[in-house]
Amino acid sequence: xxxxxxxxxxxxxxxxxxxxxxxxxxxxxxxxxxxxxxxxxxxxxxxxxxxxxxxxxxxxxxxxxxxxxxxxxxxxxxxxxxxxxxxxxxxxxxxxxxxxxxxxxxxxxxxxxxxxxxxxxxxxxxxxxxxxxxxxxxxxxxxxxxxxxxxxxxxxxxxxxxxxxxxxxxxxxxxxxxxxxxxxxxxxxxxxxxxxxxxxxxxxxxxxxxxxxxxxxxxxxxxxxxxxxxxxxxxxxxxxxxxxxxxxxxxxxxxxxxxxxxxxxxxxxxxxxxxxxxxxxxxxxxxxxxxxxxxxxxxxxxxxxxxxxxxxxxxxxxxxxxxxxxxxxxxxxxxxxxxxxxxxxxxxxxxxxxxxxxxxxxxxxxx
Length: 367
Ligand SMILES: NC(=O)c1ccc[n+]([C@@H]2O[C@H](COP(=O)([O-])OP(=O)(O)OC[C@H]3O[C@@H](n4cnc5c(N)ncnc54)[C@H](O)[C@@H]3O)[C@@H](O)[C@H]2O)c1
Hints:
Blueprint: H1 3-11, H2 14-21, E1 30-35, H3 42-50, E2 54-59, H4 67-75, E3 79-80, H5 88-100, E4 105-108, H6 112-119, E5 129-132, H7 135-141, E6 149-152, H8 160-180, E7 188-192, H9 196-207, E8 211-215, H10 219-227, E9 231-233, H11 235-238, E10 244-247, H12 257-260, E11 267-271, E12 288-293, E13 296-300, E14 306-310, H13 316-319, H14 326-343, E15 353-356, H15 359-362
Parallel strand pairs: 1-2, 1-4, 2-3, 4-5, 5-6, 6-15, 7-8, 7-10, 8-9, 10-11, 11-14
Antiparallel strand pairs: 12-13, 13-14
Helix pairs in contact: 2-3, 2-14, 5-6, 8-9
Nicotinamide-adenine-dinucleotide binds at residues 134-136, 160, 164, 168, 192-198, 215-218, 221, 235, 248-251, 254, 272-274, 315, 317-318.
């Protein structure tokens, strides 16, 4: 996306514009942000800098970084430490640099700052409050908590019920169609995980003509998938029937190599979840492969069958496509802006621990 389309983005995100305009004076706030570096974030970054906040920005996922977004955020006044596909070591150095920068507030997607602080026993920066946007990040916080309040805005009806449920499926399949020149007709599609992301992936795959199956480890959600009319079971049981497999769990190796070995010839593997290792990719390195298309790598399995990996297992909608539509992301970004307004204000006085972002904070974004 170019700067011209960044202007287009700003013009089509009126809720974000309203939430940014309502932000308080942020002089003295040092906000460390770890997030997807997508051009759609720019109106918020510009707004925060315009309110006097000092910003340290890094990525929550090196594969989703857009270098032109890094440049645009730097031009807006943020200190940005990230580049496309930065190796893990450089990424972790950026997280450490952000903590050494002595932030007063954190805005995270995946809890990388908080997790490093707690797991490495670092000296505590003067953090007063934080925001967490992802289910993966909230799960990582379970068991160990820092001495400041963290506001979870993933589990809001206006985040998981809209962005996770409605946009990830639409944009993942849109990326698949555009980058493979294929559709889901006459294909068995397996959706792994039936949280709000998986539900959207499954419903949209069905709407796009796929024959959809679901794999879940949570028995209640497995039943929900059956009540929604999907063939549902475990990954090893249903994966051999699939022509397309998409993961959306936030968990590690949900499609293990032992399952990949037995996939149908021509099966596609996509990931829509936060973690790049939802599909066990490392054993693929020893296989014969060909870059069949810019977004598709084809591997020849020991069985003689071929499988097609989409954008190397990175987040399909963000790396293979442009992510959410501007109008839908407007709601997400407006809630994020309202959440930042809260953590630099009344939210600082909340008890340590994880809190759901209060309705009174995010509700005005709905108007
Ligand atoms: N691509 C995007 O733009 C985008 C947007 C929002 C969220 N996400 C990510 O998508 C993932 C899912 O989000 P969600 O809100 O649906 O989370 P969720 O926690 O509500 O649902 C995840 C589901 O996966 C299931 N699961 C876990 N391990 C499994 C396994 N081994 N096999 C089968 N099922 C398994 C869980 O039981 C759960 O029901 C997260 O990583 C989240 O960060 C991606």
